Amino acid sequence: MRVGRRGAPVSDLMLVGLANAAMQAGLSAYGATFTNFISGDLHLGAQALGGLESLREVPGFLAVVLAAVTVRFRQSRLAAVSLILMGVGLAAITGAHSWWYLVASGTVWSIGFHLFAPLSNGLVLGAAKPSEEGRALGWVGGVGAAGGIVGMLMIFAMVPLLGLRGSFVPTGLIVLLGAVALFLCREEQEVRRSRILIRRRYSLYYVLTLLDGSRRQIFSTFAVFLLVRVYHLDVQHVTGLLIFNAIVTTLFTPVAGRLIDRFGERRILALNYACLIPLFASYALVHNVAVLGVLYCVDNAFFSFGLGINSYLGRIATSKDLTPSLVMGTTMNHVAAVGVPIVGGLLWDHVGYQITFLAGAATCVLSVATALAIRADRAGRTDTTVDRAAIEDELEFGVPILPATPEPAAPRRAV
User: Fold this and answer.
1) Which of 32, 147, 324, 329 could cross-link with 209 by S-S, CB 3.0 to 4.6 Å?
2) Tens of pLDDT, residues 298-307
């Protein structure tokens, strides 16, 4: 990926950051209104929500297939099309009157979102300097969090005028602005990408993303639902909480990226998951809504350290492997995420919400053990040498495995 032309006022990295800001604005606006919408307008319960979220995550599980059939597209253009799908799907929620309609519109925007995420990370990591992957991801994450604040401020202004249902139209439109930014990217040369790629040497990355998907799904599906259903927070209170949380995330994400580069993924990820264990347990054991609101913001701040998973891949993968491996990671992330909302909803309805959050704490325990298995060295990735063991390590479908003589990567411009 070419970062920018000499004299060009806006680099490709900045355009990717703007696209992330637009995407997060729409996603945050959706998150601020959707729970109240389905609970107040459509009167859906925890089990229905869990089923809806599970089906909505299926496109994430199939991200590797989506990437395989679109491998010949330029990454920035494909990312732009992904945001178009996401924007249209979010805007379509305004016409929802049934659970199945929500499934249909959710599938459309979910396809766009889950295809955009690995492509965006691939564009960022491809532009980052060696050993500064965390900083680049942190900067883009901070810009995205700032976009989330804009989206929630938009909800504050739009809900009184348009109502919950009408607010989904501007939510979708703001995501489309991100597609415009990506169409302005100036890529000149693409690294050849594989259709589907699995390597044993990336297995730790796959396990980390699998556990991260389980933990995130429990939190993102049921934390706000707990505050709305059990503690009766209305849309204004939820939006205010999310705005404050987005401010914390905006300030903290770039710091998290620098800490990852300084101390390494092993230490930061292990510490992150260790701190999340009592936070998840508190959602089961604490019954003060103010304390739970504070814990919600702290929990989201710790999510910033999840950048270390992609940063870890960025320093061990070749440029050729990077995007297909990120796509495979997205698929692994959703292997558990597809089932977790259904199981969590069933446990909520039949046992109690406490067991749902205690299961999240148990997932964090497993994540600590996995993070400690990361090698502590900071050796960067190498694009010009591929040993025989690595070639034999690869399972790749749809294209030849590797050329006999490895192709040198294109020179990378500094950010």
Assistant:
1) 329
2) 887 887 888 8
Tokens 């148990």, located at residue: 362
pLDDT tens, the chain, 415 aa long: 443 444 445 677 788 889 999 999 999 888 888 877 877 777 777 677 777 777 777 776 666 666 665 556 677 788 888 999 999 999 999 888 888 888 888 889 988 888 888 788 777 876 666 666 678 788 888 888 888 888 888 888 888 888 888 889 999 999 999 999 888 877 544 545 555 667 888 889 988 988 888 888 788 778 888 888 888 877 778 777 877 877 887 788 888 888 888 888 999 999 999 999 998 898 888 888 888 888 888 887 887 888 889 888 888 887 777 777 777 777 777 676 677 777 877 888 788 888 888 888 999 999 999 999 988 654 444 444 444 444 444 444 433 333 333 333 444 333 3
Topology adopted by domain 12-397: Growth Hormone; Chain: A; (1.20.1250)
Contact between residue 250 and residue 150 where contact means Cβ atoms under 8 Å apart:
no
Q: How many CB atoms lie within 10 A of CB 202?
A: 22
Strands (DSSP E) found in 104-243:
196-199
β-pairing, 394-397 with 196-199?
antiparallel
Instruction: Please give the structure tokens belonging to residue 393.
Output: 């390590």
Helix or strand (DSSP H, E) at 119:
helix 99-127
Q: Are 33 and 235 in contact, with CB atoms under 8 Å apart? A: yes
Task: State the amino acid at position 244 in one-letter form.
Answer: F
Of 160, 218, 260, give the one whose Cα is nearest residue 345.
218
Alpha-carbon gap, residue 235 to 165, rounded angstroms:
12
Residue 389 makes CB contacts below 8 A (sequence gap 6+) with none
Among left, alpha and beta (phi > 0; psi -120 to 50; other), residue 163 is: left
The strand pairing partners of 396, in sequence order, are: 197
- Per domain, the residue ranges of the chain are 12-397
Bridge partners of 394, per DSSP, are 199
In the three-class reduction of DSSP (H, G, I as helix; E, B as strand; rest coil), residue 360 is classed as helix
* Cα–Cα distance for residue pair 122/324, rounded to 1 Å: 9
CB 333 within 8 A of CB 213: yes
What three-state secondary structure class fits 181?
A: helix
Residue with tokens 């998951």: 273
CB 83 within 8 A of CB 19: yes
